[in-house]
């Protein structure tokens, strides 16, 4: 499997060099229940942040079998590398506004669907937009984060008003 770097995002992330070893797990495990009426709209997972730690991947474990699917929006990697998406993604838009911008700018994307099986685990970049389709039964998941640390102290400052 080819390794790739996925640095954290958020405040001061671009001015900080991050280790490329995501070997720690956030000790805060969250168990969530989605009822049969529940549908999760398009979103990104929130990032875990602590002093000198940030998450960059989500670890999701399905605790039961469910008819619901998790759908990930995958964008053409060449377009990301060419910088074509900066005005579309990650610049303060809501998920719905980003999806509309993908259409408006004719950005190539595809949906990747994952059908949960009991005990199945997936790890994904927290910058990925994703949603869940409604399920006919309750869906239980366990979620946590993979975290990394900076190679040197973070370049941060604070504002006082």
Your description of this structure?
Helices cover 9% and strands 33% of the residues. With 161 residues, the protein is mainly β. The chain has a domain at 24-74 and 109-148: Sandwich (Jelly Rolls). The model is unreliable at 154-161 (pLDDT under 50).
List keywords for this structure.
161 residues; mainly beta; Jelly Rolls; four-stranded antiparallel β-sheet; 2 helices; globular
End-to-end distance? 49 Å
Along the chain, the helix and strand elements come as EEEEEEHHEEEE
Give the percentage of residues in beta strands.
25-35%
Unreliable spans are 154-161
Please, what is the average pLDDT? 78
Radius of gyration: 17 Å
Main sheet properties: 6 strands, antiparallel
Can you give the helix content as a percent range?
Answer: under 10%
CATH topology of the domain at 24-74 and 109-148: Jelly Rolls
Superfamily at the CATH H level of the domain at 24-74 and 109-148? q2cbj1_9rhob like domain
Number of alpha- plus pi-helical segments: 2
- Helix/strand-derived category reads mainly beta
CATH class descriptor name of the domain at 24-74 and 109-148: Mainly Beta
β-strand number:
10
Tell me, what's the shape?
A: globular
CATH architecture of the domain at 24-74 and 109-148: Sandwich
Compile the SSE list and pairings.
Blueprint: E1 24-25, E2 30-34, E3 40-43, E4 49-50, E5 53-62, E6 70-75, H1 77-81, H2 95-104, E7 109-114, E8 121-125, E9 130-132, E10 139-148
Antiparallel strand pairs: 1-10, 2-10, 3-9, 4-5, 5-8, 5-10, 6-7, 6-9
